[in-house]
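Record type: monomer structure entry
Structure origin: computed from sequence
Chain ID: A
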Amino acid sequence: MKNLKCKMRGSAAITMVLIVSAVLIIFVVGMSNVNISTSSQQYNFDADKWSYYVAEGCLEESIKRLEDDINFTSTSINADSDTVCSVNVVGNLLKTISIDVNYLEFSKSFEASVNLVQNGEVYNAHLSNWSEI
């Protein structure tokens, strides 16, 4: 009878160890998934901000080039080794500037409307619209 009680206690202990181990494994896997998801969201947020800042810089460069040369139509600007900004300009005195930013595998497009006002021999640009498309 004593031998049977010892065997029952041993199997109960092993069962408890297995249950606790299973719960811990489920908890660890769940936390890993949460961390991976959070990391992915942070990467997307950072890439989104970086693309916007690069697009703003390309817009400023495009406006400066338009003020210097009213016939300016397009350019490609490398912000860094991973980021390329492509600019296309159409229109006469009301220019539409299309900006595409490619950062690693992330890409965004923006559009701006700029009104060029001639003041003597100098052109001044007035930004009337700037948005992501």
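Annotation 1: Residues 2-132 form a domain with the Pantoate--beta-alanine Ligase; Chain: A,domain 2 fold (CATH 3.30.1300).
Annotation 2: The chain has a mean pLDDT of 88.
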